[in-house]
Design goal:
With 235 residues, the chain is an alpha/beta fold. 36% of the residues lie in helices and 17% in strands. The longest helix is centred in the middle third of the chain and has 18 residues. It is globular. The two termini are 33 Å apart.
């Protein structure tokens, strides 16, 4: 089997090198590829010398680099990565250091064993208030997750988590349209409507502030609410 790790990036020059080194250091027990989609960063995320060198290094032959011509949003980059992915399992990894790549092997294990098609890494299963998560973000996450459960009959604790692992067959070909952070509610709603079971496992998390580079904003909460209601009202 093969794992595809999709990393959408935008203005992450201070974290991208550390993150990629971290992802590469993990033993996934199966072959893996890393797909980096830079969303027209305005800093040196994509042009950093180490990223350019990755293209010629023998030990980085599993890394694929792409750059959007214009900024389209995280959802667009994730959708692009899904189309490019050649793995049997697909997982999303943010380009910052909020999520710990060493959690990935346990998230994909149920899929490797054929026990599950989709696994989400929940920040709240072992910690009701994750480190570094501001109260507005905590409240928004709780509200959106509760609304998802109410509208679609799911029993999730963390719908908005970045760590979503999919059996490739469960997500490739899905009619995803989200360009921004609305990828999270859209893909969750579509899976629920298809009656695909979503398993949650606890993960580590250390949130960062807007000053540290966090990009999600208050307006994204309202976009997510609209997507959830739209998906409930459509087939």
């Amino acid at each position: 089997m093969k794992l595809s790790i999709i990393i959408p990036t935008y203005n992450e020059q201070h974290t991208i090198r550390k993150l990629i080194d971290y992802v590469q250091s993990v033993d996934y027990h199966i072959e893996h590829e890393i797909i980096i989609i830079d969303d027209a960063s305005l800093d040196r995320t994509y042009e950093r010398e180490f990223l350019i060198r990755l293209r010629s290094k023998a030990d980085s032959s599993n890394i694929k680099l792409f750059k959007n011509k214009v900024n389209r949003g995280k959802g667009f980059s994730v959708r692009k990565g899904i189309k490019i992915a050649t793995g049997d399992i697909i997982i999303i990894q943010d380009a910052d250091t909020e999520y710990v790549p060493h959690d990935i092997p346990k998230l994909i294990e149920p899929i490797i064993k054929g026990e599950q098609q989709v696994v989400y890494g929940s920040r709240f299963l072992n910690n009701p208030h994750p480190q570094g998560m501001a109260f507005p973000s905590l409240a928004a996450n709780k509200i959106l997750t509760c609304l998802t459960n109410l509208l679609f009959g799911t029993k999730l604790t963390d719908m908005e988590t970045c760590y979503k692992a999919f059996k490739a067959d469960a997500i490739k070909g899905m009619r995803l349209r989200a360009n921004r952070f609305t990828f999270e509610p859209e893909v969750t709603a579509l899976l629920a409507k298809r009656k695909v079971e979503i398993t949650e496992l606890p993960i580590s998390y250390r949130g960062r502030s807007t000053k540290e580079g966090k990009k999600i904003r208050a307006k994204d909460f309202f976009f997510a609410v609209c997507v959830l209601f739209w998906q409930r009202l459509t087939k």
